[in-house]
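User: Second chain of the day. Same drill as before.
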Amino acid sequence: LLTPGSSGVISPVSQSVGTRCRLVVCCLSASISGNTGVLHVLETEADLDWVLKSGPHPPYMVLMDASYFNRYTVMMQLKNSTRVTGVAVVIPSTGPPQGFSPHNKCPNQHTGVYSDSYGPGLADCNVTVWNPLGNGLSFEDFKFPIFSLKDDNQTEAIRKCISDHNVGNNGSAPAYPLCAMQMFSHMHAVTSTATCMRRNYIQEHYSLNPESVCDPLGDFNVWAPLLPLNVTSKGHKANESVVIAATRLDGRSFFWDVATAAEGTVTGFVTLLAAAHALRSVTEQAPPSRNILFTFFQGETFDYIGSSRMVYDMEKKKFVIDLDNVHSVLEIGQVGLREGTNLWMHTDPVSRTNASVDEQVRNLVANLKDSVTGLGINLAEPTVSQPLPPSSFQRFLRARPFPGVVLADHQSSFVNKYYESIYDNAAYLNVTYPSDLSPEEQLEYITDTAKQPFSFSGFQVTQMLYGFLIRTNNSWFRSMISAEDVGTPQYYVGVSVSMTRPSPMTRLVQYLLANLTGTVTALNQTTCQDPSSQRNESKELYSYLWVRGPQSANSTNRDPYCVRSTVRSTLAISPAFELREYESKVYSTWTESRWKSSIKARIFLVASKELEMLTLGVGIAVLLVSLLVTYFISSKAELLFSSTREPSGTTY
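Assistant: Same format as last time:
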């Protein structure tokens, strides 16, 4: 990922040769022909010294357990060495007890609301360090690729290759041939977003065969008003007051596709999905005085891409409502690791200096407390004055003062010990299942986490947690999506080159939200796709989705249906790219490099330099002899290949 003044890169990867590898972070990436080095296992401090100083066969490819990868000092020593060409990390399922977070201590600190002009004493985590375990490893500028490996039989094959060929006797240097690894992960882009976007422009306008070198991060926001809104008219809606109920959809880790973001992301949007479903039946009987806009933002991990885009669109009258229609914001953050029954209501102390905003916040807090009566939840406010935690609400406050609350399981610093790391997974949330259950039985098994008070519907919550954290390809999810949307969602926001279709993750949430809040209709597939000719149906007020439906009893066929809902999706790409402000200090400017070749790795045996030179010498000698023989034969061809002619008068 490229940011102004930085050349760090994080990107998705493909399956490797022999072992499933995931490239995660590099700066210059691998060379176009791949990075190659002799494999060495890092298990002790002596191994580290061997790689950095005493080993006689550099450069090295380092295979390490996660215990060394988790140590910032070790990774910095490898980064600053010229003897390292790549790293492969074996990832366990559980994290270190002391915690590990490769993110910053102050996430999104430069694109939130607090600055020199707004609550300067609260900026840069001066009051509360939200992520005290953050070491910033994900933002370091590595000159070599780093792959992650599963601890399985294929990883053991790599270890065996190393033990058979790369371990000397009695501490001596190993003899050739040696086990080596080659990593392929070459990228187009370098330096910064401004540079790569300028190169894109040159390619698009002056090249006969244009080829982009990077793409902005982005996807789509998913949103659904509780009461339908006419989407054909943009901007202000008269007599419409809206409460935005928000959460984020994306997460990250050092390794993009091992970013389950269980506590950091999944607990929040699963809670909002469950709340939207619960409110549907309640509001059908008693419509609320204000509309509620359930909103799922994409790209929030990377400087609030989704929320900044929605606020921008509201300001420019490009969204279904504008900022004047927004009454307040209620955001659900990390809510899965509560201590006891407490959930904390965070508010902004700066906007509350306005008497009107403060009164509305007090009313909002009181209403929230009343709404959880009898649910076993204790909503409390932090005991000290502090800024808002990293949250989408901050982007709304950058536009104007709004009353709002951010719900979270932490009073001050994050309870999450593995924020934005590979260890923020199902096991960390205690989403576990008895070993004797089948996948279908696990889907219906209500875990202790799903029984917690924040879960409005234990059965549906357990199905969603199972689907998002354990097995996406399950019968419940398959029954609620379209046939073409069966895929593996990732929490990394990624890029969408055409920006015409949401990612699998976004589509899945879109379909789930539609099923949980919508109504099944009698429309067939054709009329579902175009209901304009149907009485009492309106594409201006509703969206229509054709879903696969459940599998019929005793049959492989399904019972598809059309669901009508208010669910929509709109573009979540930073306004900086529309404004061409690639060095913006206001909006996110994250981009991802295009990849020059497939991303893969292979292991092989490498011979000694002496043997390689001998082989080269013999090859050259054979070539020269071949040339001499060819020249001799060519020069004597008439003599060597001539045939004796018979006299023309000879008869038989």
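The first strand starts at residue 9 and ends at 10.

User: Great, on to the next one.
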